[in-house]
# Entry
Amino acid sequence: MKRGILFKVKTSKSIQEFIESFKKNAPQFNFGVRYVFDMKKEYKEHNVNVDEDFEFYQIVLCNFDKSYKTMMRNIETAAVLLQPKQLVVCNNKGETTVYYLPFSKE
# Structure
């Protein structure tokens, strides 16, 4: 099985600026943001002792139209192929860094 390529991009925007910009621009590419998880908050809610300077967000997005049409053709794909896409945005040594691992064609 061929491994995907992890995309990594740094931005001069703060994490919050990036998230707001991403939400605003995603529809231009037929995507919508489903959820933004503040993982610091999530970890704390599960009693994990988290460093105060920890900044890590997961952005879950979806092409809603394509997802729905694909499921209507074959509902089983929802369990395997149509998992939500996800970006990770974090503070990496003082820089906002975005990571994304797309599916390969295989």
Q: What stands out?
A: The chain has a mean pLDDT of 87.
